[in-house]
């Protein structure tokens, strides 16, 4: 039974906040817990932006070995031997397999619950609400137009340019092109007190351009996250990679068809990725490629059992009218807080 007092309500959002805080500690400073050997050798395929440039982290992002293998294993070996061999792909296949071992259990929840950059954007948005920054909502048309960008980043920055660098067609600096522009590289290293990654490299024009783009993107994310939800997640190539595998994980979002949905739309307002399918579709189509399994749509659905988070046949969380009524007493679907944690003093004439 849901506690009707919003101050005492145990919410999925509070659980997610706690998990995000723990995972931020692990993915930014976690080598102090698991040791540098584990950080370097055992966790190079995490489906979240845990950056290898952060020397204190406890797990590596899968995009790092993908770029490295496209550059040094595939591209350089093709250039040296003049032929393509299956052996060139074996390290890449093992990386994808290790990635899927992680991905199988949490699926795209790595984006919504584990990714350090996603957590920082979440918290910046909360800060924006506290300081009363204007909320910028991304419309359906704009959200759909942005979707190809993450696939372009994956194909060009993660796969294409590193391969071209290995073949000698592009400068060496493009061997890890995505890492050079990734805002998580700057954000997580700054959190450990390392300012080196914020410095723009000047050894050649390509490194300078990539560094300038990375710093500009980092600055944009810092500012944009105060007013809009998850600005970088919408174009993140790791979201695209996770989307390729989303049907292969038992953890998923399920929405049943309901007669009231057409005129409601609260779930779409609650979605930090502004996904229109969660409102307009049902069944498999409602679980769209941009979904990060944060669960807000289920929290703010006002009808029983319409939206669920499930692991295989097991229901983990289900929408509930009683839960919704208690939830909206403390926060609006768009994230505006309705409870003041620090009571205001009495007004004086």
Structure explained in plain terms:
This protein is mainly alpha-helical. It is built from 17 helices and three strands. Strands 1-2-3 form a three-stranded antiparallel sheet. β2 and β3 (314-318) form a beta hairpin. The longest helix has 27 residues, at 140-166. It is globular, with a radius of gyration of 21 Å. The N and C termini lie far apart (44 Å).
Task: List the keywords.
single chain; 349 residues; mainly alpha; 2 domains; three-stranded antiparallel β-sheet; 17 helices; 3 strands; 52% helix; disordered N terminus; disordered C terminus
Brief characterization of the structure:
This protein is mostly helical and 349 residues long. It contains 17 helices and three strands.
List the helices and strands and how they pair.
Elements: H1 12-29, H2 31-34, H3 36-41, H4 63-81, H5 86-106, H6 109-114, H7 116-130, H8 140-166, H9 177-181, H10 183-191, H11 205-224, H12 237-244, E1 251-255, H13 261-264, H14 266-270, H15 277-280, H16 296-299, E2 307-311, E3 314-318, H17 321-327
Question: Cα-atom Rg, whole angstroms?
Answer: 21 Å
Oligomer: single chain
Series of secondary-structure elements, N-terminal to C-terminal: HHHHHHHHHHHHEHHHHEEH
Mean pLDDT: 87
Adjacency order of strands in the biggest sheet: 1-2-3
Low-confidence stretches: 1-7, 341-349
Number of contiguous helices: 17
